[in-house]
Amino acid sequence: MLAASMLAIGDELLGGFVTDTNSPWLADRLRAHGVPLERVQVVPDDPAAIAEALHAELARPRPRVVVTSGGIGSTPDDITYEAVAAALGRALELEPSLAERMHGIVERTRERGFTVSDTFVTHVLRMARVPAGSRLLARDGGWTPAVCVDVDGGADGAEGGATVVVLPGVPSEFRALLADAVEPVLLAGRNPVPHVVEITHRFPESLLNDTFVTLARDHPAVRLGSYPGSPMLVRLSGPEADVEAAATLVRTAVAALEAVAPGPGPRT
What region, left, alpha or beta, does residue 113 occupy, with left being phi > 0 and alpha being psi -120 to 50 degrees? Predict the structure, then answer.
């Protein structure tokens, strides 16, 4: 079973200036492929912090995909490529196709009449310096591809390895690259997609605790979530046969409560 982790990188996230919308998007897309998102870490633009978080995720059970977002621009605080390379013990190397794109940016900047200094060129080319051994997952029409770094044979290898996927933090680019480049190559068809059943009811969730205890004992393959609200929501996910059996158990319990306290309210 392929699993996933995420590192959302950026001082602006921890400072409260920007809200992370990439991790919920990733969670939704992973769920569609049956890949559990086991951890999300938010870390600053600091090499040591990025390395610490990356090592922690790579130490979890494999095969695994570790997705990073943010910190791959041209400014001095964009250090994700450098930090990932250092954490994996790899050098940085100029990737030819990325370098060609970056030189195009330089030329267009010059054509618009702006001064193009050596410092400008150096920093633009930082976006083409990736960890040695990276492979690109490109999409049509995008300004940059996803950069993947395989560890111990990669997440799609036979050795139980991992793949680090470095994505931009800009939500539109993150989502497009994930859908068009990452999902087809690394996620699609890897895991069975869980069966999900949602049951609504109008009673305090504590009244179903006895049922939930029985459910956990008799159907350990089913993941249970109970969420307060109007209406209350019970979500069951897992193998279809187990989920349907658990759903019958919950519906029976809700029906018993309705018999004791009849009245208007949502029913399953």
Answer: left
Three-state SS at 207? helix
* CA pair distance 25, 154, nearest whole angstrom: 23
| Residue 192: cis peptide before it, omega within 30 degrees of 0 | no
Peptide bond into 63 cis (omega under 30): yes
pLDDT tens track for 206-229: 999 999 999 999 999 999 999 999
Q: Hey, is 231 helix, strand or coil?
A: coil
For residue 141, is pLDDT > 90?
A: no
DSSP 3-state of 217 = helix
Same domain, yes or no, for 132 and 48? yes
Helix (H, G, I), strand (E, B) or coil at 153: coil
Please give the residue range of the domain that contains residue 208: 195-260
Residue 163's Cβ-side half-sphere holds a number of Cα atoms within 13 Å equal to 23
Q: Is the pLDDT of residue 140 over 80?
A: no
- Which CATH number does the domain housing residue 179 bear? 3.40.980.10
Candidates 42, 40, 98; CA nearest to 72 is 98
CA 113 to chain centre: 40
Name the nearest CA neighbour of 176 among 131, 144, 223, 213.
144
